[in-house]
Write a structure and sequence with these properties.
80 residues; alpha+beta; 3 helices; 4 strands; 32% strand; disordered N terminus
Length: 80
């Protein structure tokens, strides 16, 4: 993820239960994905609160169980 992409919106980290694949994975186009033993962590940029709300609604509709969602500080290079 480039600095320019980060400037286009807020960098967020989303953690969900289980493995994200298929249709659910398509919801996170452009996000980095880290599969862990019991959760999946996704990091990417959302343009604004509206886009984040829409993403959360689609996650719910896809049956993903949200564990956590947080905005990462600008300049954070926590990507895995």
């Amino acid at each position: 993820m480039t600095d320019r992409q980060r400037q286009a919106g807020d960098l967020v980290e989303i953690r969900v239960t289980g493995v994200v694949s298929g249709y659910a994975r398509s919801l996170f186009e452009g996000f980095d994905q880290v599969d862990e033993p019991f959760t999946t962590t996704l990091r990417g940029v959302v343009a604004d609160d509206r886009q984040l709300t829409e993403l959360r609604c689609r996650m719910r509709d896809a049956g993903l169980e949200l564990v956590s969602l947080r905005r990462l500080p600008t300049g954070s290079d926590d990507s895995a």
